[in-house]
Amino acid sequence: MGSKNTYKSFTEGKFRYEMLQIVEKRLVDLKQKYKYTFWNITDEWREKGNETWELVYVMKTDNPAVDLIIFTSIYEKTRKSRDKNEDRVRLVMRWKIQKKYMFGHLKRHNRTGNLFKNLGNSIVEAQRRAISRLDYCQFEDSVQKLEIVSLERDI
């Protein structure tokens, strides 16, 4: 029997199922307001000049200028995550300001047994933040810059 701290592999189907569970159980108001609450934007992400090997999803918030970007750690070609290694599922807030996007770091979650519980908690917290007062100083103009800043804060 695996520990909750052992890295787990999962498929895109499992990811989508768990995301639907988060929406159904914890984001009922969002579900009632929008027909679609999250969807795959990997192709759109690349078309905007971003590189990625993983599937990228977006989730709506109650703030029309803000959505959540989820970097899944699921390989696009195989539609599943790696069996081993410490890649993480990352949650980023994307804020549209004057026709350009700004990105704010939210959370990184290890692919362990409690990944989807932790991800659900972060999504609920991010949904609350999206409708509160956002601080421009906590945002970067690219995810790459955001990753560098986040790594510097972790040291």
Strand content: 25-35%
Q: Could you tell me how far the N terminus lies from the C terminus, measured between alpha carbons in angstroms? A: 33 Å
Q: Give helix % range.
A: 25-40%
| Secondary-structure class | alpha+beta
| Spatial shape | globular
The succession of helices and strands, N to C, reads HHEHEEEEHH
Number of strands: 5
| Spatial strand arrangement across the major sheet | 1-2-3-4-5
- Largest sheet data: 5 strands, antiparallel
Question: What oligomeric state best describes the polypeptide chains here?
Answer: single chain
Count of alpha/pi helices: 5
Poorly predicted runs are none
Radius of gyration: 15 Å
Mean pLDDT: 87
SSE layout and pairings?
Blueprint: H1 12-26, H2 28-33, E1 38-40, H3 42-47, E2 54-60, E3 66-75, E4 88-97, E5 100-110, H4 115-130, H5 143-154
Antiparallel strand pairs: 1-2, 2-3, 3-4, 4-5
Describe the protein.
The protein is of the alpha+beta class. The protein is built from five helices and five strands. It has helices at 12-26, 28-33, 42-47, 115-130, 143-154, and strands at 38-40, 54-60, 66-75, 88-97, 100-110. Strand 4 (88-97) and strand 5 (100-110) form a beta hairpin. Helix 1 (12-26) packs across helix 4 (115-130). The relative contact order is 0.17. The mean pLDDT is 87.
Which terms summarize this structure?
35% helix; 155 residues; five-stranded antiparallel beta sheet; alpha+beta; 5 strands
